[in-house]
Amino acid sequence: VSAVEPGAFDALVAGVLDGDRRALARALTVVEDDEAGLRTVVAALHAHTGRARVIALTGAPGVGKSTLASALTATLRARGDTVAVVAVDPSSPVTGGALLGDRIRMQGHHDDPGVFIRSMAARGRLGGMAAATPHAVAVLDAAGFDVVLVETVGVGQSEVEVAATAETTVVVLAPGAGDGVQAAKAGILEVADVLVVNQADRDGAAALEVVLGGAFDSVLTPASWRPPIVPTVAVRDEGVDALLGACDAHLEHLRAGGGHVERRKRRAEHAIREIAMVGIRRALGGDPVGAMGSLPRRVADRELDPFAAADLLLTNIAAPAAD
Amino acid sequence: VSAVEPGAFDALVAGVLDGDRRALARALTVVEDDEAGLRTVVAALHAHTGRARVIALTGAPGVGKSTLASALTATLRARGDTVAVVAVDPSSPVTGGALLGDRIRMQGHHDDPGVFIRSMAARGRLGGMAAATPHAVAVLDAAGFDVVLVETVGVGQSEVEVAATAETTVVVLAPGAGDGVQAAKAGILEVADVLVVNQADRDGAAALEVVLGGAFDSVLTPASWRPPIVPTVAVRDEGVDALLGACDAHLEHLRAGGGHVERRKRRAEHAIREIAMVGIRRALGGDPVGAMGSLPRRVADRELDPFAAADLLLTNIAAPAAD
Prior knowledge:
The structure is a homodimer.
Chain A: H1 8-17, H2 21-33, H3 35-46, E1 53-59, H4 65-78, E2 83-89, H5 95-105, E3 115-121, H6 128-142, E4 147-153, H7 157-163, E5 168-173, H8 179-185, E6 194-197, H9 205-215, E7 229-231, H10 240-257, H11 259-284, H12 295-300, H13 306-318
Parallel strand pairs in A: 1-4, 1-5, 2-3, 2-4, 5-6, 6-7
Helix pairs in contact in A: 1-2, 1-3, 2-3, 2-6, 3-6, 4-10, 6-7, 6-11, 11-13
């Protein structure tokens, strides 16, 4: 049962489409915490999505992703784009930790009606961050933002998958602590469209650029997009114009080859799969009043063979039956 | 596409129901290797299942499960029961290894038409042993065997789950090598209906019995079945009558409390879940011609919202659509 009263969904959806910030905040809370309301909100907003450009910023903790997101937001605003930022922090003990830090770093945009910032903790709902993020992006897209920046910690398969659904995936590294090697291990380099070496004024930055440059020599065909390596010093706004230029060039490359459409399909496929998995995990976890229902008894009584029962199970997961 | 021609299934099913050993061997090969034919065979035979008593023998490698299975088979035959043995060996490099060893140990039953022995390797089909074993049991049940003995290596979650679907689950341990501790770690003691300390003539057997006796003191309510501990020396046929007696007592206990029906439902639920998971894994693994089909494009084109698409995905997994 949703925490939002049935009649209130229409007003919530209208508020989001109108760009009302309180409605937007409420809708994102539904996405995070209200499984019953989520479907209603996403279904109603879906027809209004597909306009926003999604850029993912991903990398290990401490490489400066949030500072870079703030600087990139300022650069986008300077040319007139409205920007929504979704910061996903799976390690946040409560949402509070991530919220506070991001808010401080992003406070330059605090009074700008063209910027909206939301931190999400990767907890709570079944499926976690991987399931919730596509819906948050869809809500912000429907609300009319030109650009949605998704900031994720690039560790773990689900984070990599989420990052790969953006139009442009920016992988952020920084010199020191073997970040290049760690990134390679996490599979994150494979989804990079643009590489950033942040903190480029520190020791080891040039060496990291050389390592990254070599990492793509063996895997790319000449026709492929070769991820450019952009050095930045986000705290001083250095290199951020070049980063946006690289993102723009990548988007043009996608559009020229139809890859733009492929990314949207990939994002859709990811959302479909995550939604299906939420139902499947619950059903197969043995929820006693769930989709399994009386099927085991009917098989044991030989009313149904187990394959017919498995078909009904999957149909029940799709649309839970009274049986 | 099945390796069995469509018209041949009727003959195969009729042969199994008739107890024809070549048909039985062929049907079990379909269960192991022929996903397209599996459904046809299982669906046709299902109405004829439900009569056999299933006993699982499970334990670590080297505790003497196969020798015990052979001795138990002889004891069952002596009182007139027909017996089918399914030996599952996930570590078998080819099926050959398990086959050869089991055949040698079971050779005393070689010329007995009341005994049928089949070794299965836990490889090949998607879902492996956990998916195939319930179907093998169903085929042997339909063929009219009074008892189906399922011999599995009791390591790993799926092996434990398979063992737990029998009417009676016998956990076999032997002194030495910390088997009691290993069994406890693997969660196998929790599904034991009868405990066997095999190689009971060796050092440490008495100590192992004491440890096992203590293991159940803290977890059982007075009304529950308390798993009896049966010492055996399977190579000398010692204790095997007592083991069968313990299995019989457990079956009577189940019948008295309705647990018999619960075990059959549990077995059915396990089979349904494993069948569903085969389809789900394939569909979510991104099979390009599978259930996902054009759904991502339709969501990207805003013909469908992602929740409606996830419903269709699950329906497609249940009954793959042309789309």
